[in-house]
Records
---
Amino acid sequence: MIVILKQGTTQKEIDNITDAIEKKGVKVNPVIGKELIILGLVGDTSKIDHTQIEANRNVEKVMHVAEPFKKANRMFHPEPSIIDVNGNKIGGNKIAMIAGPCSVESEEQITSIAEDVKKSGANFLRGGAFKPRTSPYAFQGLKYEGLELLKKAKEKTGLPIVTEIMSPYDIDKFVEDVDVIQVGARNMQNFDLLKELGKTNKTILLKRGLSATIEEWLMSAEYIMAGGNENIVLCERGIRTFETYTRNTLDLSAVPAIKKLSHLPIIIDPSHATGKWWMVDPLAKAAIAIGADGLIIEVHNDPANALCDGQQSIKPSVYNNLVTELRLIAKAIGREI
Amino acid sequence: MIVILKQGTTQKEIDNITDAIEKKGVKVNPVIGKELIILGLVGDTSKIDHTQIEANRNVEKVMHVAEPFKKANRMFHPEPSIIDVNGNKIGGNKIAMIAGPCSVESEEQITSIAEDVKKSGANFLRGGAFKPRTSPYAFQGLKYEGLELLKKAKEKTGLPIVTEIMSPYDIDKFVEDVDVIQVGARNMQNFDLLKELGKTNKTILLKRGLSATIEEWLMSAEYIMAGGNENIVLCERGIRTFETYTRNTLDLSAVPAIKKLSHLPIIIDPSHATGKWWMVDPLAKAAIAIGADGLIIEVHNDPANALCDGQQSIKPSVYNNLVTELRLIAKAIGREI
Amino acid sequence: MIVILKQGTTQKEIDNITDAIEKKGVKVNPVIGKELIILGLVGDTSKIDHTQIEANRNVEKVMHVAEPFKKANRMFHPEPSIIDVNGNKIGGNKIAMIAGPCSVESEEQITSIAEDVKKSGANFLRGGAFKPRTSPYAFQGLKYEGLELLKKAKEKTGLPIVTEIMSPYDIDKFVEDVDVIQVGARNMQNFDLLKELGKTNKTILLKRGLSATIEEWLMSAEYIMAGGNENIVLCERGIRTFETYTRNTLDLSAVPAIKKLSHLPIIIDPSHATGKWWMVDPLAKAAIAIGADGLIIEVHNDPANALCDGQQSIKPSVYNNLVTELRLIAKAIGREI
Amino acid sequence: MIVILKQGTTQKEIDNITDAIEKKGVKVNPVIGKELIILGLVGDTSKIDHTQIEANRNVEKVMHVAEPFKKANRMFHPEPSIIDVNGNKIGGNKIAMIAGPCSVESEEQITSIAEDVKKSGANFLRGGAFKPRTSPYAFQGLKYEGLELLKKAKEKTGLPIVTEIMSPYDIDKFVEDVDVIQVGARNMQNFDLLKELGKTNKTILLKRGLSATIEEWLMSAEYIMAGGNENIVLCERGIRTFETYTRNTLDLSAVPAIKKLSHLPIIIDPSHATGKWWMVDPLAKAAIAIGADGLIIEVHNDPANALCDGQQSIKPSVYNNLVTELRLIAKAIGREI
């Protein structure tokens, strides 16, 4: 951490600030120039709240050097984490393939899609039971009934369940019924929910918020990890920019960035990223090529009549062809599906 | 709502889509040109989920014409809403002045600030008890103890309490202890929390999410209103853009936009918008001039030692001068503080 | 300037980097911690290209401390600059009022608008002769004929002319015919044009680019100033964000930011900022309240038939009322129109 | 094009607007509902300036249906364009590989890099002679001397030259000396320059502006094409978002979007997109997988001492390995390098 002081700060004030900072348990090295007074903080600064230093009126600004996250930081955990979900691994050489409908609609629907995507090579089943919708008047999911239907599809296919949680009230139920608990983009900084999930040992699929920086995203992972749960899979699903042709802008450079900064696995959601089914194919290919550890893709047997997000869902047959082509790209970069 | 079909869509397909849409209870008027087939939907489209139409592969895109919010919509409620909080009105000619520290730190701190800002003209006291912090290692607020201290400050000054809720678990407690329940920017689309708040009749201060469009923000208000609680005050607090000199970019044009689209009152938070205490003064003046119904400002008796956000807090004496100057601007536009 | 080195950089490599940097004429002070090696650069760093330092593979990152602009920097020119245009001052206590149509259409149109806005209190006439349009098929302005008509309007009213330049070929003509040469948002980083304008001594109205940071904007001013022309007026006209309700998002906090960082005057364009005529009034009021040195507003006698941007133009009578109200706000903050 | 009228617009006003629009050569089909009055415009709307319609105070908004570009539009040119540069094709099955330093520094430097990248498989040489720099104090390129050195490198290697133009004054020289004229991101809407380039028949590499929408980018291509020059290659190089870890956010979804909307080839610049040399490899792989028609990559023999952008340049040996790996991915999607 580096503290820049205002020009004209007196030696006495520098000493006061230095004392105040050193009380927080770090050492201060000053660099004093004519147009520049900086204090270099040496030691563990991860628990120092920079706003407490910036509040001093002699402080021009405070700059991070070390990343503010610890448990998620690759510096202290150089090996990539491999998350084990009932024997299915996320983060290793084999790429995780998560597929299924936007929302669970009926037993027949979810079971038939589960069977189809399994045949194509998927090893996880996604399906929304609780749906975060912008409008209170839109379909909100089958809720607990949806969870029951997911369990039936799991019974038939063996595919572990990935589904989104919206309320801390439901954590116990999700821990019992679900294999991977998804935290949606809009809840990425629902810190209360993150803390509660930190007390479980379930795998958490943490989606990046629509306008979250990579650092904030890792800090949200840190919230869960600080609570004791280190089973986290990150998921990039598009960020909000000025471009309106696509619903969001998929930030694929987040993949190498996360690999550099953290040991946690990262997967890509090409369906939500653009909101257009015909873009799923090229974006999925790019995601594999750039080194993503998995893909979560919306697949529906009848997109035109889907209860939500049919415009971004692909049919099982399209998914099947896509996986075949993805295998070639995975092989080209030395991985497998 | 307008549905654009792909070129080459056959008459039979047009008929099928038309039938499917008319089953949702609206009438379809087609406009058919050589390079253009559009369907104009006439009737109440607010409950139609556009993704269900977009999912049809012959549909190029779906465009909203009418706003998707009803209860928050000025079209159906032309008079501006005035929210009554224990006799203090938000939304009328008199401008609401909310002030207080980022977080409650001690009885002495909160009481003394409350007394100071009251003398200067504030009519609401803000103070965080539960703090949403990016880092799990940062000070998270005094929590329930903070609520108790706020109540003591209210006892002494009579100022109604404005404070942020983070968990649905705390709603009963907040309903009892608090006058205005704040929903923070990061929870603007925590739909589960919004639904629960819709069941109360407390005034809700709904902050705009960091990357929320004005429409999405009003849809979040609609969530609360759809549950039965129409006591909502909107709060613009800066949006996230590429600019890094200020922490966020205050979108003051949201004030006239909200006044046009909705009957709900809107206030401005100049402290969070920029993260710089010396910008509070000019931004507060601009907010009054543009027609905001109130200001929420961070005031601390000792910013340099504040437990959070001291860098954006002003001292009581600075607040006092500011209010004096704001009164002149309010008068210039025919309002009062 | 601060240089952060990678962990594990050897002393020998630190010495090499230090030598290389000191050859650029600054002194290097090292701060060496266990998880942190930083080099504090003391001296004139404004001419050091940070990419040349970042290119060293041991360098983690380079951070600016001092602003990279010199001539535009308030630190070296504490008094605000007042720009004199034929006796009309921009930057002093009196607020500059620039008004006129998006584009010059006919002698009658430009002259009559000029006469109207002058009566209302405008002291500069704007009017586009060369129009930067997104589409090659849209009206591109009357070009040289437009300049002639502006001169006629000036003859009749005495109002100095503000108009946009698009090509370096036209500089001589503009220097002769025009009082303030406008550089549009899309040309803010047309460095070649900026360099040529730096050789003149005309007042330059430099609009902020749609996605330009405040620092980049000041660096564009620095381009002109480095060439010898210090007569620059900055103009904020809205930046590009995710919000689509307004055409752009007016960044009013740029006003106090510029006042802090630079001595150059700054004015606001509320017409282009939102693209909506009914938002001009509230945004103009906010601009005066926040301390802008002027306003540039689109006024047209027949907006419904304007050849461009009629949707954001106000009528002369509306402008007249607006100026009357703006005078009250100006007075409230101790300035005058 | 669709025109939405305000509620309460009278039949007489509807008729007036209809007449005014039909005079522009299109037919108007009205759809009149209780809460909705829309006019569907049928015919060639590409030459209608929507602001001229929006200026009518009864108009709520105007929405595009057909894209505003004609010559760049895939609808009227279903086959993808293949641009021929001295026998080297851009846009076909073979992927164009453009490589070279950020700026030309010396004969030895440019020639040696050209020879190296040619051996690795590059078929075009890039190198900046005129450099657009944010700071007027940064190295601005060798200018005309740089062009001469590029010609020498071409003589030795046969690689066609790709280099950036900054001023319309230099067009004749570039037409003579250069094979592909690059228009940089900051000049994407320098319409004057685009018009001049439209009069040549050189291949133009048109970079996307930092905050340009895909539609605006295609409209800039349309400017050149409207002038008669249809030899255009688009280049995505990262857009500006709130994320600061990377210099820009590479928008790879622009590749399938452009392929859908236009027949023009599109290439990717992974070097400028992130500003980090170690991200070039994964982003280049993703670009090939997603279907880009080429890559423009910064290669320098001594990045640590490069005169600009060394931090994003890779060494010839790294480039050589990268091309080898890219060939595998190209093969996996049925293309070749």
---
Amino acid sequence: MTTEQLISQIKIKKSFLCVGLDVDLDKIPTHLLELEDPIFEFNKAIIDATHDLAVAYKPNIAFFEAYGIKGWLSLKKTINYINENYPDIFTIADAKRGDIGNTSAMYAKAFFEDLNFDSITVAPYMGKDSVEPFLAFENKHTIMLALTSNVGAFDFQTLQVDGKELYKHVLETAKTWKNSQNLMYVVGATKAEYFTEIRKIVPDSFLLVPGIGAQGGSLSEVCKYGMNANVGLLINSSRAIIYASKGTDFVVKARAEALQMQQEMEGILNVSFLK
Amino acid sequence: MTTEQLISQIKIKKSFLCVGLDVDLDKIPTHLLELEDPIFEFNKAIIDATHDLAVAYKPNIAFFEAYGIKGWLSLKKTINYINENYPDIFTIADAKRGDIGNTSAMYAKAFFEDLNFDSITVAPYMGKDSVEPFLAFENKHTIMLALTSNVGAFDFQTLQVDGKELYKHVLETAKTWKNSQNLMYVVGATKAEYFTEIRKIVPDSFLLVPGIGAQGGSLSEVCKYGMNANVGLLINSSRAIIYASKGTDFVVKARAEALQMQQEMEGILNVSFLK
């Protein structure tokens, strides 16, 4: 999917919501556990109930890998289901990968080709040659960690390097890499005041924003400081939507949560943008 | 496996060699491609031919994921084969994982429980709560990136923070985390002179050292600056061993390469250590 197509979907749906699929068998409705592939069935139900309110889905790869081969099969079925039934959805493999060049090339192959995701999250620590193999794929997007939403973000990401924080160096350096137009960045919502500074470095890039809801971030604050002329934000919500209820009404409750977020977003979106 | 058991194996085998399993179907002998699971068959042959010369095997997870479900099955068969036939081998999932706490816990479950690896490589960028879920597993080892062997290592890892490089902050900070006795670190062989400084910070920890051979590092230099009283080094070699030949003699050639490395190591190992 191109960035233009993503922006177009945001206009059509009046939403920049991304639904995170972090499926834990201990947390889903128990009646699903009797089915052959409860993870896929849960995802399918959530997707069917929210696809008109969200522009992106973000399967969290750890939650599939934890179930071994079965989990990997559920992941494959989930991404195929989205691609076949809702081709306008932007898909994110939340995988936080990154390794030396020939290894990153294999991860890129796994997620962009074998699974056919539109994008993948990657970690920056190993530098340029660990990220560029992902950037080489046309119309695929590489979402690099910049400033994350967890407390550990303050261990290294905000260390001062030459008078400014490490995450700013990461952003400035990444902009110089080959095919950097294919980069997006992860910026946690729990640090809304940082968005002003980040937008000075990457004014046009899309930012994937976790941390709204369960982790305490505010949608209006993030939009106030982080939104650009093309919106430039994908706001992720995982647990607040997918675990809105553990009963047989989980689909209805998930939709209600997603609808509430979409309506908040519609209220924020600039009238001129939507024309 | 405990650290003591690993040290004991180094004494018995007079070796601190780790063989990296980065299996690319384009590079393995063509006669294997006719078999049902060429990746597993290749790994099995390499392991059978070198298990008395190596103390560790390191499947590179990207190279399995790139082949989708089939690759994941090959990974499962490979780790099971090692655990069942060579239980004294230390196994490393080279996965470079790391995410917010509940997600890292799922990765830990995937690699320590479902696949039953002894250790996993992780990335430090997200800080303490992204690594501690791995450290909570008893007799499992978490091998964190410190200073890597690729050129991108100089993008961020060596940035100056308060007068010293970022990777030193990473080492010093990680030492303060809960269960940090379960940490090992990745330090690239291409930067042998850095080992002196690193040993001042982590004198007792095991270091996993890629970059000998194909990437240009020198075994004797690394040992000179990086070895401690318990050896404290696992030297990885991937391509130089597993792709020593593409012909039907690949097993013989792989063993010859591994033997040469083991003999170099035996020559370096202190006589008093081996008693």
